[in-house]
Amino acid sequence: MQLKPQDFLVALKLVAWGDQRWTYARLAQELGLSASEAHAAVRRGTQAGLLVDTALLVPPPVAASCVQEAAAIYRVRAKPRRTTAGTASAADNPARVHSRHLAEFAVYGAKYVFAADRLPVAVGVPTSHSAPAFAGVFAPGSDDWVWPHPNGTARGQGLEPLHPSVPFAAMQDAKLYEMLALFDALRVGRARERGMALKRLPLLIHPDGAKPQARPMHG
Prior knowledge:
two-stranded antiparallel ribbon, alpha+beta, 3-stranded mixed sheet
């Protein structure tokens, strides 16, 4: 089994959705994938440990003080039960993110698995430190980066997106866009941009995790 770029994209989308109820059809539509691609991406992400199959989750054990007859009632259900109308628990979805594993992979592994490919200067969707989420943090300059796209709003150094559907998907979801831009900052940014991405990206994916240790950066 080998991870594909869309597998990482799907995992980041699930982070952006948080506890929202989702379906494969919605996942595919918002990412510009086919339904079969969405299913396969979730399957590979689960095999890699970036996602967790909610069907395998079991409820906490019954307290020892319960009588034997009552304990027999608590069995693992074949299908997860919904909570109240209009709300959903994590078990309602086919899979959920393994936040710690995904944060570690995003920061320390993904940039090597999905290496950056530079393209000619083009008009496109700003990414890396040039993305709208970082307006006011980094001044625009000649080293702006873009995903080439006919509906782009900026001109800069072209960068092949993680997946061809990334520009479309990013323009539909501000949080997903921010994470994808931070990932690109890890791949092509200078020391300052990489340092910011190293701190910010894992906190977006795994807010309760330990902050990554600062490392000297060059370039």
